[in-house]
Structure formats: structure tokens, C-alpha cells
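Lab notebook, bench 4. Still working through the backlog of constructs that have no structural model yet. Next entry is a single chain of 169 residues. Request: give me the C-alpha cells for it.
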Amino acid sequence: IGSPTAAYCIRSLRAALGRLGHRRRYELHVIGAGERVEVPGVRCVERPWNLDDEPEEYRALTVGLYPLPDNEWTRGKCGYKALAYMASGVVPVVSPVAVNAEIVEHGVRGFHARTDDEWVEHVDRLLGDAELRASMSVRGRAYVEAKYSVRALQEPFAQALLDAAGRRA
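Model written out:
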């Protein structure tokens, strides 16, 4: 799930996802890429991004992919996609770039993948192990609720507003 400007990220996994397609049959859902993403041997389901459909698109996934190159631009990203996957109960496999390395604790709330071999290994493992996905998704959702939910952030946010106004609670 992304935008046309980030479609190059999912395309960077074409070789790995194609190798995975030789191991097991799966569908790759690509939302918002703006143009076709083809992976040899894999059925790609493509749809335009739509705000109203986004929550359901996330929940419908089995595994969330978040590949990023390691560069100045991506090191400034906030990890939103990893958080959205985990909040939706989807286990992410991410490039451990910047904050993603912290948000997605490797082997606990998802997996880090740096190489094609790691992408294939981790996605294959998650696709084949429903119990692992279930336990990781529970831990991921709990992490997002504890650290990033409105409930978790309401007091710090209110205090930041008071501090900006020169007052203390």
C-alpha cells in the first residue's frame, strides 16, 4: 500500500518475490502504485489507493511488505507503514532503515530483511505459519497501542500544547 512515487520500492523485490513464487503460491496485492507491478510467476492484484478503502486493504493482507533503500530520504521516514500494518494486525517484513529497525523488533513484531534471501526466507516463513503470524500480530498491535495510540499520546500531546502556551498542567 503506497503511492506511485514509492512504487520503485516494491519493484526492488521483484526477483525475491518471484523466487518465493517458485516455493509457494501466493497473491501480491499492490495498492496505489499507479502502474503495473509484475512479478514472474506471481498473481499480482492491483488497485488504486482510496482513503475510504485503506483500513480494509490493510486488514485483508497476510504479510505486510515495507522495502526501502537506505538513503538520506528514507532515513527521515517515520515508519507509518510499519505502524499501520501492526495496528491492523498484519505482521510486517521491513527494511531495517531508520526508525523501522526499532518499530519492528526483529523476530518479535515482524522481521527485518536486507537481502533477497532474507526477504524470501521471512515472507515464506510467515505465509507458512499461521501461529507465528498470530503471535507476532498480537505483539505488534499491543506495541502500537502502547506507544502510538491516541490514548497513549493524549497526555504528552496536551502537555506539549500547554508548554507551547507557557503553562504547566
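Notes after review: The beta strands are 27-31, 43-47, 63-66, 91-94, 111-112. The two ends are 40 Å apart (CA to CA). Flag for follow-up if needed.
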